[in-house]
Amino acid sequence: MSLFTILIVIIVTGFVLWLVNNLIPMDRKIKKILNIVVVIALCIWLLKVFGFLSSLTNIHV
Known about the structure:
This protein is mainly α. The chain has one domain (3-57). The protein is built from three helices and no strands. The longest helix is centred in the middle third of the chain and has 23 residues, at 28-50. It is flat. The termini are far apart. The model has no long low-confidence stretch (mean pLDDT 89).
């Protein structure tokens, strides 16, 4: 996956999250939970794209 594609996904995700936060009326707590879930999902996806997540699952203790 190219760096340009990763950057586009991050920008589109941020824009959609901004639209949801500004255009959909919902409680502040729900918006905060939604933001946290999206950011965690994006971080996990980035770790998976760069290969860090697969290397962490191969660790045996």
